[in-house]
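Pipeline run #58 for the internal structure catalog. This entry was flagged by the ingest filter as a single-chain record with no existing model, so it goes straight to prediction. Upstream metadata was stripped on purpose; only the residue string is passed forward. Reviewer on rotation: M.T. Logging verbosity set to normal.
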Amino acid sequence: MHRHFNDLVAWFNGLPGTVDLRTLRLLDRDAYGWVEFVAARPCASAAEIGTFYRRQGALLALLHLLDGTDLHHENLIAVGAHPVLVDVETLFHPPLPGSGTSDPAARALHDSVYRVGLLPQLLVGDHSALDVSAVGGGRAGVSPVERADFADAGTDRMRLVRRPGTFGESANLPRTAAGGPVDPGAHVDALCAGFRAGYTAIGEAVDELRGDSGLLASFAEDEVRVVVRPTWVYSLLLDESTHPDLLKDAHARQRVLETLRTEQFGPVLPPAVIDEEIAQLWAGDVPLFTAKPGHRDLRGAPGRPAVDRADLPGTARVAAKLDALDTVDRQDQEWIVRAAMATTSRVPAHRPAAGRRTLTAGRAPEPERLLSAARSVGDQLVSLAYRDGPRSNWIGLELLDDRYWRIGPMAADLADGYTGPALFLAQLAALTGAGHYAEAARTALTPVPGLLEALRARPEELGAVGSGAFSGLGGIAYALAETARLLDDPEVGAWASGALRLAAAATGAEPGYGVGAGLAGGLVALSTARERRTGTGTGTGTGAGSGTGSRTGAGTRGVPGLVPEIVGAARACADRLVVAVHAAATGPADTELASLSRGFTEGTAGIGWALLRFAEAEESAAGLAGERAEDTVGGGAGLRAAERYRLAGLSAIRAAVGAAAPGGGPGPGGDRRGVSAPTPGGGPADTARASAWCRGEAGVALAVLDAPGALADPHLAAWARGTAERLGQNGAAPDDSLCHGEAGLCELLGHTALPEARPHWLRRAGALLASVEESDARSGAPDGVPHPGLLTGLAGIGHGLLRAGFPERVPSLLLLRTTEGHQDR
């Protein structure tokens, strides 16, 4: 195999426009042989570092086209300006048996350049995250997976424990002449340039690879290793299954190994493959599977029959991939390269770095231009979707635990999942009447029934999914209900009702408190559904007014028993939040709620806003109850409860505003633990963070302005208006996203409670429009990598354009407003 790979690299090095790749010298003795030992050494100059990454990009292109995989940090050595591959046993790798999926985005990612293993890939666990890739991994660290180990080994205190393992530093990363580390994220352009050159060169010379006399045919009888499961899974099972308790009972040990037949360690493999895994584990081995590129069989231990057959031999699959090379595919692969590299960013999530962009004094953007720009975003989303039959999906960037970015097929959440782009496309369809936007929105929602059914079958997992408005079932239910109304689709409306019931159930086990991923988000989602069904809307300033696009209210009414179920769950949410707010206000500073940030998504400002919104709905409901009883006694208990929610909501918002009060002293209520408030003379980074809806002052001010109970407080109102004025005068936001960019700041400055901020809003909306028209829109993901998501991606930027042009018809997604029953600016 290695000899044939060296021959292929020699051919590749001779192609026009490529960079030369170094291979290892071999001493071939037919049945055995030796390979050259190489030692890592640093780059001699900055120019050599750039050359290293161009070569790594070219190597990536070659390995991608050869169906390489598992080429992680231990399989590559940085030798000056040369990335040297030392293990080529996993080329021509077949698709994993049993790995078929109905998700076209998951299949596209599996077949993409990401599969090679060179690009950054995080393993995320309870204790840490570890990058195991050749480009970004290799640093010393702690394993995210616990394993059996012996504490105090060699002493009379020796005992079996489970703890994360440690990793030493590998030799895959280049180093400066002084021996210092190199940041791979600073060399993305060089990596992509090398990939582009290699991909293009191979595409222009494919005829030399194909056919019986082509270079691919030389690999036909070579043996390749097939990685059906990560090696750490086998190591874990070998460690755990040799516990003394299990060694006393063969049946008990077998039960441990039989966990391979479950989804605990990934997709379930075919029974014959699992049988072979277990047989090799019983022999004390890490299971080994092999194949030959010219054949279809997958084999286990020597002398045993094949355990699976691929649809095509490896050489035929690679030939088919070569036939499909074109500019569109290359651009898709380059996006995956850039997105994967963006996950290595060291900039903390929701704390955008200061941008270098400038705001120009633009004129008021016309609605027609805003709609045209939004359509260009919608067209881009449609073109980026991977589709197969009735289903489509996108490859996106997901933020895990607010700490780690990961590339993958979109899940269902509103923040980073497919419901966000689907909802924006539905809004676009309702405004334009263009059927292809409606179709794209509808096909993106195809997996929803299966998801809801799976969650109904596993109620114990609802707490982990959560009820949050952006990362949980609350947001999913909201997105489905809005999409159903916009598309006039009763089936999607029925899904919305099912998701809402699950969200209500999830609130009972919800561990968090915030709007994005906690109780407050569940409360708002339930409140929104209640307003939609009973007409007890709050009437605040940023929801859409006329209900345009809603002809039937598909799926939002007539569900027996759903309104009482919603109201009961919402009151339980509100009661828990009241207790938490009271504990934070009167208890130690390290209580769970007191330790939260003061922003909108996961902070006390959003919690206060949610409670105030629910209090107003309760007041409306109690008033209606009193009117129906023709006295005021019927709603008395409801009004008292509403007042309790209102006071708790005010307390939370006052805590959020606290440190930003004039003079830096305590805010209303005497709470000194408030948002970090940069002074007008603060640095660019402070200004950028302050402008963020998610965790900055912009979100706190929006919470005040959107909650009439808070806006009635003169101190809070003055602070919010002053903050909006100051933020409006700031320079350009670092990106255009809803989360912490221009689109999110426009939501604040365009609020109906801020008519005096209209000049600032016009300037900001004009800047957002200009960014899209000039193809310079920047997402809120690391390095501004464009991706489909709502809060930090293209769908949110498109929604911001629609909000700016048609506020009376497009409700605010950041505030979970609906297309019914609300007035707008």
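catalog note: The CA atoms of residues 323 and 764 lie 47 Å apart.
catalog note: The domain at 365-666+690-805 is CATH 1.50.10.10 (Glycosyltransferase).
status: ready for reviewer M.T.
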